[in-house]
Amino acid sequence: MTGSNASYQTVTRPYGKAAIDEAAALIRQGHPIAIPTETVYGLAADATNPEAVARIYAAKGRPSFNPLIVHIPDLAAAEALAMFDDTAHALAAAFWPGPLTIVAPLRPDAPIASIATAGLGTIALRCPAHEAMQALLRVSGRPLAAPSANASGRISPTRAEHVSASLDGRIPLIVDAGATAQGIESTIVAPADGVVRLLRPGPITPEQITAAAGFPVTTAASGAIEAPGQLASHYAPAKPVRLNATEARDNEWLIGFGPIAGDASLSPQGDLVEAAARLFDLLHQADGSNRTAIAIAPVPHHGLGVAINDRLARAAA
Ligand code: TXA
Ligand code: MG
Question: In this model, does residue 288 exceed pLDDT 90?
Fold first, then answer.
């Protein structure tokens, strides 16, 4: 179950207590599983376990890391992870549980894996209405990172059959509760300093958000709605970054991989799941060190290595 090419025998179970118990056990063991929400089927993993979140990317074959939406069962669970202002409270009161995702400052002590937030100081939180996802959140007892349950570049799944057509052999379990109600991903908003920015349009409309917040929702400066992920500028190191380094030069802090040990290693065994899981933590560590620059050992360009190298290329740009 290590490595980036982990394969599974995928089983589909009808939604019910047995399926949720099985799904919760897999979640606690660090595996990603597919489960419906009211929008689309999600590929859920324990957001507190970095290797579990890395396995979402391995299963999707996603070529880059985005910050993921973290699902929680209620407002109290959200407030344990993030700081909600008055506007965030008003929006949660109006639309949760339901297809609205709220971006808020991450609590410094929140036990969320840095790969789930792409190293950002904020977190996107969603309290889903679907009873299957609610049951999994409560039985597993974990916040669940969950993008749509499709391979990268394929359309979002609204039925269990779409998930199996896309991810068969890449995940252990699909919980089948029939077609989803909404069919498009949740609306994403970022309330801060008396404004609400719409980051992704979805089932909850700008008019509904404006009515609940008490003031108009804003979009990009141009007036256009911002593309998904666009505002989520990933964590970028402040120091210069040199790639494909086999040794540290001058005053560099070297991030190792495989045979290159470095000051700390993404994965001494060359395991790409482990490397993805540690990536953002090591970038923060290198950035916070007393050295003036960062060097990074080569990472093979296959499987999860494609997403790792995409992120490293951005860090070095
Ligand atoms: O309906 C949905 O929201 C589905 C179902 C499965 O719940 N989930 C979903 O999750 O679409 P995901 O992880 O694919 O959404 C990722 C998007 C990013 O591309 C970005 O737009 C936004 O969520 N996002 C996540 N964290 C963010 C942050 N800290 N700041 C700004 N945007 C963020
Ligand atoms: Mg998607």
Answer: yes
Instruction: Tell which atom from ligand 1 comes closest to the C-alpha of 182.
Output: 1
Q: How far apart are CA 74 and CA 128, in angstroms?
A: 9
Instruction: Note the pLDDT tens digit of each residue in 52-100.
Output: 999 999 999 988 889 999 999 999 999 999 999 999 999 999 999 999 9
List of residues 6+ apart from 282 with CB closer than 8 A = 255, 264, 266
What pLDDT is recorded for position 265? Answer: 98
- Compute the distance between CA of residue 72 and CA of residue 142 in angstroms, rounded to an integer: 8
Domain covering 11-218 in this structure, CATH number: 3.90.870.10
* Both tokens assigned to 179: 């077609």
Domain with CATH 3.90.870.10 in the chain: 11-218
Strands 252-256 and 264-265: parallel
pTM score, whole prediction: 0.91
Residues within 5 Å of ion ligand 2 by Cβ?
148
CB distance 158 to 183 below 8 Å = yes
Separation CA 78–CA 9 (nearest Å):
34
Residue nearest to atom 18 of ligand 1 (CA): 229
Per-residue model confidence (pLDDT) at position 201 = 87
CA of 147 to the centre of ligand 2 (A): 6
End-to-end CA distance of the chain: 33
Q: Bigger pLDDT: 194 or 122?
A: 122
Instruction: Give the tens place of pLDDT for each residue, 10-36.
Output: 999 999 999 999 999 999 999 999 999
Pocket of ligand 1 (CB under 6 A): 37, 39-40, 42, 66-69, 99, 101, 103, 117, 120, 122-124, 126, 128, 146-148, 185-186, 188, 199-200, 228-229, 231-232
